[in-house]
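Bug report (template v2)

What were you trying to do?
Predict the complex of my protein with adenosine-5'-triphosphate.

What happened?
Run completed; filing so the output is reviewed.

Input:
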Amino acid sequence: MSKIILTGDRPTGRLHVGHYVGSLRRRVELQNSGEYDKIYIMIADAQALTDNFDNPEKVRQNIIEVALDYMSCGLDPAKSNLFIQSQISELTELTFYYMNLVTVSRLQHNPTVKNEIQLRNFEASIPVGFFTYPISQASDITAFKATTVPVGEDQLPMIEQAREIVRKFNTIYAPVLVEPEALIPDSEACKRLPGTDGKAKMSKSLGNCIYLSDSADEVQEKIKNMFTDPQHLRVSDPGHLEGNTVFTYLDAFCKDEHFERYLPEYANLDELKAHYTRGGLGDMKVKRFLTNVMQETLEPIRNRRKELEKDIPAVFDVLKAGTEAARETAAQTLSEVKSAMKINYFEDQELIRQQAEKYQA
Ligand code: ATP
Ligand code: MG
């Protein structure tokens, strides 16, 4: 069986380092591993509209931002198919048919949806489109017969929902769809990177992000103000690692070789952590080290972005070509889905013959 990747992001802002460690970095590795037959990377604008329907300009403006972030991280249009969700109407059509396979109570129990409804103050009145976005996500995944979906941990309930839809569809109609597997990061820090304010998740909507496109000065300033251990008042005090954002970021970003370059008095992160918890290590020193590590990671991304920004029409051309190619695949799957659901009347000569016979008898 082919190995196919589908994943994507909502164009609700520039991409941040949470996206990077949660999914983007992995995507680029998978792309370059050569182990996958097809890689589809989607800008999920239709999904972004489910909670930004009153602000279409925001979604429109952020298409290019996400595309630039993708390509500057190393997603290569020659190897990965970058496309825009809304331009593939087949995805919407699949969603309509999958809706029959999902109950309202199943959606209500989806923990991610519950959490996001709370976050957006939708409790009193949830737009139907937003409520059903897990179904639309199942369409995105299955339209490309994706086997692998590299995402952050918050997306696990979405993949489970997609798997249920696949099983139900294949049982009721015909084995057309492929059950996807989520691929989440191994490390706790990367599964759900907290915001710079120490809040549970770095998220565009919460304004607690370090963006991939932030300047070196902005990155430095954000790390300087980053949440650490509120009880660690004097350098000599023992520090706590639990909930300490600076150390969570080090977990996500730093490698042993960074110590050689920027902090040679420690061999690795474990030694640094031990000193911090013992007392005698100041937050500023740890923050300076984190700044060096992050700048080393982000600088090449920033530089590639600067290059890409010089030719914006070329980036739109990449998206257009990617969308056209993706659309062909989605159309093929939709056609198989419609045959399985027996709604392919005009292509089914056998049906026409049978009906004719019935009336001739
Ligand atoms: P929004 O606030 O508009 O929902 P977001 O910042 O949550 O934006 P999404 O576009 O919803 O970003 O998420 C895109 C991908 O990035 C998903 O796979 C998600 O799991 C992953 N991701 C987002 N934020 C984080 C994070 N803080 N840590 C790890 N992965 C993340
Ligand atoms: Mg989100």
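What did the reviewer find?
DSSP finds 17 helices and five strands in the chain. The CA atoms of residues 211 and 250 lie 17 Å apart.
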